[in-house]
Amino acid sequence: MPRVLVVEDYADAREMYVNFLELNGMEVVQAPDGLTALAHLSAGRPDVVVLDINLPHLDGIEVLRRIRGDPETVNIPVIVVSAGIRDSLTCTPLVTGATLAFAKPLLPEDLLAAVLGVLPAPPGTPA
User: Fold this and answer.
1) In this predicted model, what pLDDT tens digit does every residue of 93-108 receive, in sequence order?
2) Is 1.10.10.10 the CATH classification of the domain at 3-118?
3) pLDDT (tens digit, 9 = 90+) per residue, 31-73?
4) Out of 23, 39, 61, 70, which residue is the most buried by the measure of CB atoms under 10 Å away?
5) What is the residue-wise DSSP string for the chain?
6) Contacting residues for 19 by C-beta, under 8 A, at least 6 apart
7) Which of 88, 86, 81, 7 is nearest to 40 (CA)?
8) Domain extents for the chain?
9) What are phi and psi of 82, to 5 degrees?
């Protein structure tokens, strides 16, 4: 079962994503801020991180920087979902290091497709 860390400070959006991913067979851990996200990353490695940029206590840019700077987490796919992304000019400097980036609002179905698209293939799966 794929494990996804959803980092989103807006409770309604976080709950919507968590519920939809769980209904589709994912194990989901959630964090309302950057510090909690880092604590979850230290406690257990998720297969994918869904990360908002505008977070309290530690913003998503710093969380992403730390994920990419740690040998234990450097290869985890990170999907950024943020209201701050409006076009490719805004997106590129904001999310350098992200695997994918999407502007809010993002439908849960589109998030699921993105998560499924970045999951590593299970061991023994033909390439």
Assistant:
1) 455 789 998 888 899 9
2) no
3) 999 999 999 999 999 999 999 988 999 999 899 999 999 999 9
4) 61
5) --EEEEE-SSHHHHHHHHHHHHHTT-EEEEESSHHHHHHHHHH---SEEEE-SS-SSS-HHHHHHHHHH-TTTTTS-EEEEETT--SHHHHHHHTTT-SEEEESS--HHHHHHHHHHHSPPPTT---
6) none
7) 7
8) 3-118
9) -150, 145
